[in-house]
Amino acid sequence: RMETDCNRMELPNNTGFEEDSDYRDFEGTDVKDMRLEAEAVVNDVLFAVSNMFVSKTLPCAEDVAYINVETRERNRYCLELTEAGLRVVAYDFDQTDDRLQTPYHETVYSLLDSLSPAYREVFGNALLQRLEALKKDSQS
């Protein structure tokens, strides 16, 4: 009886997996590899860090890309970008450390916010300036 229950529990997971693979195929037409996604991430927040670029040393693939970032505090990180999100994989450019068990972040903003107070300040100021500009536009 118990085995039957376990099998029933597995069935929805298998169905979900099939949907996921269909979704991945669909997404593959949109983003051939994670390099394009990584370039977009870099372009989004480059203004708020000292340096940030997609790694040319570590391999990019359909499902993974690596981004090097140097915060304004001069700390260097290598980030892994996958469907699961972004996470720190090393404390230097173009490196990965399998022993590091860092959490995934859904967005680059969340990740950088946790790593760099200076990023938080610069990003916050840019947001305030944009809001002020919108406010002026709506008043004119």
From TrEMBL:
For this protein, the record's Pfam families field holds: GSKIP_dom
Looking at the record, the residues that make up the GSKIP domain are 34-134
Q: Which GO terms describe its biological process?
A: regulation of canonical Wnt signaling pathway
Record-stated family: Belongs to the GSKIP family.
* Coiled-coil residue windows: none
Q: Name one GO molecular function term.
A: kinase regulator activity
The encoding gene: Gskip
Q: What is this protein called?
A: GSKIP protein
Q: Where is this region: Disordered?
A: 1-21
**Gene Ontology annotations for the cellular component aspect, listed alphabetically:** cytoplasm
The record lists the organism as Ramphastos sulfuratus
